[in-house]
Fold:
Amino acid sequence: MKKKTEEEQENRIEKMEENRLLSVDDVMDYLKIGRDKAYALFRLESFPAIHLNKQGLVFEHDLVSWLKLHRGCTVYL
Structure:
């Protein structure tokens, strides 16, 4: 019984990591861009941002998908 509980907990942790929310600061670090560019990115209509209490957030997997979709494109910020 204990082993199953540990496996379930590990699965929950893996899912949480997959669904990790990134803040503007996280995106700045992730993409190595400045604050102005990060905020401009979050304002793009095509960017999968979530605005919660004036805070910009994006799921990490959505950011990666968006980057893959725009691979080879020039995005002006």
Observations:
- The mean pLDDT is 88.
- The domain at 20-77 is CATH 1.10.10 (Arc Repressor Mutant, subunit A).
